Amino acid sequence: MAESFVLHGAVIYSRDLKNIAAFPSAWVVCDGGISKGVFETLPDEYRDLPQTDFGNKLIMPGLTDLHVHAPQYPCRGNGMDLELLDWLDQYIFPEESKYKDLSYAKKAYSLFAEEMRKGPTTRACVFSTIHPEATSVLMDLLEETGLRTYVGKVNMDRNSPDYYTETTEESAAATRSWLEAVKAAGYSRTRPIITPRFTPTCTRELMCALGELAKEYDIPVQSHLSENLSEISWVKELESDVSCYADSYEKAGIFGEHTPCVMAHCVWSDDEELSLIKKRGVFIAHSPESNINLSSGAAPVRRFLDMGLHVGLASDVSAGSTTSMFSAMRNAVYASKLRWRLMDQSLRPLTFQEVFYLATKGGGAFFGNVGSLEAGYEFDAVVLDDTPFLTSREDETVLHRTERAVYLADQRDVAAKYVAGRRVF
Amino acid sequence: MAESFVLHGAVIYSRDLKNIAAFPSAWVVCDGGISKGVFETLPDEYRDLPQTDFGNKLIMPGLTDLHVHAPQYPCRGNGMDLELLDWLDQYIFPEESKYKDLSYAKKAYSLFAEEMRKGPTTRACVFSTIHPEATSVLMDLLEETGLRTYVGKVNMDRNSPDYYTETTEESAAATRSWLEAVKAAGYSRTRPIITPRFTPTCTRELMCALGELAKEYDIPVQSHLSENLSEISWVKELESDVSCYADSYEKAGIFGEHTPCVMAHCVWSDDEELSLIKKRGVFIAHSPESNINLSSGAAPVRRFLDMGLHVGLASDVSAGSTTSMFSAMRNAVYASKLRWRLMDQSLRPLTFQEVFYLATKGGGAFFGNVGSLEAGYEFDAVVLDDTPFLTSREDETVLHRTERAVYLADQRDVAAKYVAGRRVF
After folding, report:
1. Which among A340, A403, A408 has CB closest to B322?
2. Residue range B104-122: mean pLDDT, rounded
3. What is the mean pLDDT of chain A?
4. Chain centre distance of CA B213
5. Phi–psi pair at B188, nearest 5 degrees
């Protein structure tokens, strides 16, 4: 499906955390799904490839959303005056339970998938619900979008409402049969990921069973970690033998030891937990708006970066209100600034360059060689029409325009999108 | 110009800080520019008025932006990695100095005015630059939008760059001649407001001269107060005889003693300053995104409300990135949550109901009986098309829809707007 072609426009991408490359006019070359790089003058060898000229529009790498709850999409922007545990009880568990009904799942997931198709996200780690059939509905729809995603059937066998829970055996068996169904479906872009909701709703027995499945099927793991102070206290009550919250995953063998692992939040991870994250190469899905909305706090991302941890950004819909990764970027800056000013002046705020890196290369790395337009990366690109934000200034650079887009753009400003060399919008 | 008519739609407005009135289907009646109230059944006496049916769209009061810098509009979303004083030097003063050129002023202000016309703001307190002619250009353009605004020529006679400053005499004289030009222009919707930039750039002599002009012309005053810790230290160095930053305005008679006064920020106002704000009935223009972007902090709005101070919301473009007051509302919630979690758990976060009140009745009060659809208020209304945000949920209320719009909407979602009984968009 991947094609070979050339795009022209204003081009921007991160070289590394501190350096951004920006060109007012350049060519980007895709060769069978892989980028050949960015050129200010198109090399002769690519002159015969089909060209699309996007004029002055901004061409940037695709954005990766490392943590999003598809079934919560209908709840976005609601119940924002509650904290995590109350919000789950009053809004989220009732909504997620509806997906047992496949006609509801199809209706709701169709809206989510369509927004994901048109928005700036090219890769995502997605939570479904506990329902295996509805999870397959979601995977079918995401496969059609052309995005590359990991999707997980959620597991929860304790501390869940009566109307939305599983027994340990049911949960493990349903996960296995869902994994078999995924195999049979033969998706080319949509992959399964083991998804215990979080320690409070999963017994150790279930966690260990999921660990076995992750190893057996060789698939990664996603969950939540150290989001909220009440949640952390609760984990310590529930799991008396763990040295830190992460250790409850580690003890089940699902904390990056055998297959890759991505954990949302890490707002309050202590030194020991951060060391374990580093040791296991676990990715942190920093979800700044979610952490603000649920009054969880502001994660010490500067510290994560100084430690060399793997960090990407996440919308965390619907604790985050929008799937737009532009919002995730600006909220990452917001949270880091207030954290610096109000709490800890040892950790400098994040810059625009840094959050742009996190949304592209940072999160993209969970998917392999993803998140850049440099040669050798899988060709994911977003074409942004920032015409509505252009101003009277004559000295505006591509950097100015992109920083502004981080503050002002949303899904509606995406003019075109390519994933792994295929135009999907 | 004001007309009499009836609108139909889903209607929402604040009764007070804690209570919102919401109707899935109701009629709003405008009689010669004044609201007659909201009715679930249209009273017979209004049945002959022209009706516009907005179906299921949301009709809410117009939103008031208590502090916005029109000439900074081209800089929005840029330079956000700087703090206040560096940002002024590197981005803002160079941009504002361009408005000496009336052709640039016309070009730049036209874009600003057009966005204000189409966006959700119906009332605004607007800063111009030091240039009297360019200020008149801005007022001409805002008059055409139909919005009701206060617009101020900025004054600055010290600590300003050579290329963008006035002498004390020039500043006072230019202000007087600008006020005379405003009188002659005979605007019906656009009023002048005395606008010392802030204490660091205005000598006491100039402040006092401005105080005399405010009294003589009987017009209000706007400025900045206690935004940033470095700025506050600087004021204490510059003004050895003041007991608090606000006292530098009070000593010049422009802190609400003679005419109304609105001050942006008050992030770090101390007890004495807050007492003076209360005594003088000064309005606080809470500018949450600006305060985050410039790493200034998060104003203690809960405390302002508990003290019974007048508070409204502000975009503070371009320290705030957008003119959208939906953004100001959500950022007010964000800032209050991180302030609570990271700094001071004695001040509860703001709720959706509270920020909705602040954006409507709170700020509207600076303009008189403004900010509600209740009987007796000037008829300012925004019709919001939230179709893009509708979901698969069947139990969504007008309150759910409005809270979601606060998180997801921007200028593009406004379907119609009325100011003082006149449709302007």
Report:
1. A408
2. 98
3. 97
4. 23
5. -100, -15
> A108 to chain B: which residues are within 8 Å by CB?
391-392
Closest residue by Cα to residue A55 from A116, A3, A7: A7
Work out the pLDDT band at B83, boundaries 50, 70, 90: confident
Domain A5-61+372-423 has CATH 1.10.3720.10: no
b/e per residue, B318-339, with b = 16+ CB within 10 A? bbbbbbbbbbbbbbbbbbbbbb
Where does the pLDDT of residue B35 fall: very low under 50, low under 70, confident under 90, or very high at 90 and above? very high
Q: Which residue has the tokens 């000013």?
A: A341
Quote the minimal CA–CA distance from B295 to chain A in Å.
Answer: 5
In chain A, which among 293-312 make CB contacts under 8 A with chain B? 293, 295-298
* Contact (CB, 8 A) for A380 and A418: yes
- Beta bridge partners, B286, equal B313
Residue keyed to tokens 């009986």: B369
Q: Which residue of A has its CA nearest to B111?
A: A391
Report the pLDDT value the prediction gives residue A2, as an integer from 0 to 100: 64
B321: chain A residues, CB-CB within 8 Å: 330, 404, 407-408
- Mean pLDDT of the A68-93 span: 94
CA A60, CA A356: separation in Å to the nearest integer? 10
Mind listing the pLDDT tens digit for each residue in A212-258? 999 999 999 999 999 999 999 999 999 999 999 999 999 999 999 99
- Answer whether B5-61+372-423 and B63-367 agree in fold: no
Between B168-185 and B132-145, two packed helices, what is the crossing angle to 10 degrees?
A: 30
pLDDT per position as a tens digit, B270-323: 999 999 999 999 999 999 999 999 999 999 999 999 999 999 999 999 999 999
Q: Is residue A123 within 8 Å of residue A148, measured between CB atoms?
A: yes
Give the three-class secondary structure for B254: coil
Q: How is chain B split into domains, by residue range?
A: 5-61+372-423, 63-367
Q: Nearest residue on chain B to A344, judged by CA atoms?
A: B342
Q: For residues B244 and A265, what is the distance between their CA atoms, to the nearest angstrom?
A: 41
A292–chain B Cβ distance below 8 A for any pair: yes
pLDDT tens column, A162-187: 999 999 999 999 999 999 999 999 99
CATH of A63-367, picked from 3.40.30.10, 3.20.20.140, 1.20.1730.10, 3.80.30.20, is: 3.20.20.140
Phi–psi pair at B330, nearest 5 degrees: -70, -35
Helices B325-342, A325-342: crossing angle, 10 deg rounding: 40
* Residue B76 touches partner A, C-beta closer than 8 Å: yes
